[in-house]
Amino acid sequence: MDDIAANLRAVEDRIAAACRRADRDPAAVRLLPVSKTMSIEKITAAYDAGYRRFGENKVQEAYDKWGRLRELDGIEWAVIGHLQRNKARLVAEFASEFQALDSLRLAKELDKRLQGEGRRLDVLVQVNSSGEESKFGLPPEEVVGFARELAAFDALRVRGLMTLAVFSSDEDKVAACFHRMVALQKQLRQADAVSVGEGWHELSMGMSGDYELAIEHGATCVRVGQAIFGARLDPNAYWPGVGGGN
């Protein structure tokens, strides 16, 4: 488990280096360790290294880990994967953050469940910046209209945007996704009718294979899993030359 602390330090160093290249303050970039499929022991090792919020793709897995680790002071959970409406009640019960909001029906269900729990939830709007049919998220051209509607949901604290860039070894193609997100963030800030989002300051983009490039393009949150915890037994979605997704 000492490897996890060392891996975290290595990722932190690379984040700092990317910030220097972009003339940014490293304190403006949040590292979210993605613990999907990882053991309780590995999560505890990252907790012992100082991390308190962990990202999970599948809500049931996150809910189970929340139940098993509730005794750890200050531990929090961010759900970063697609959410079906019938699982909104779980997110409303335990999550501190939800990064994959992409429909008004889901927003309404989350708001209702959160109101019942007497809680509020930080949310990010997921954008399909690559235009791939296989990915969830709103098309960029629909986001401003969607954002206007979110003002109706008091329990949702809209913080910003999230995306998964195209899976490619072509850096220009990946960077184009990040450019679209920055342009969309600017558009939202300029839209007078958009009163939610608190400045839309959050840009969650970048994973194990591209987080340094994402930082150079303005990411405020990077979601890193395998570079911290090691390879997971998941045959889906491999980064070119890296060997994994988050």
TrEMBL record:
The keyword Iron does not apply. SUPFAM superfamilies: PLP-binding barrel. The keyword Ligase does not apply. Keywords: Pyridoxal phosphate. The modification N6-(pyridoxal phosphate)lysine is found at K36. It comes from the Bacteria. Residues 7-232 form the Alanine racemase N-terminal domain. One of its GO terms (molecular function) is pyridoxal phosphate binding. Pyridoxal 5'-phosphate (PLP)-binding protein, which is involved in PLP homeostasis. Belongs to the pyridoxal phosphate-binding protein YggS/PROSC family. The lineage of its organism: Bacteria, Bacillati, Actinomycetota, Actinomycetes, Micrococcales. This is Pyridoxal phosphate homeostasis protein. Its cofactor is pyridoxal 5'-phosphate.
